Amino acid sequence: EVQLVQSGGGMVQPGGSLKLSCAASGFTFSSFYMSWVRQAPGKGPEWVSTISSRGDTTSYADSVKGRFTINRDNAKNTLYLQMNALKPEDTALYYCQTPSGNYRGQGTQVTVSS
Question: Distance between CA atoms of 42 and 5, rounded to whole angstroms?
Answer without folding.
Answer: 24
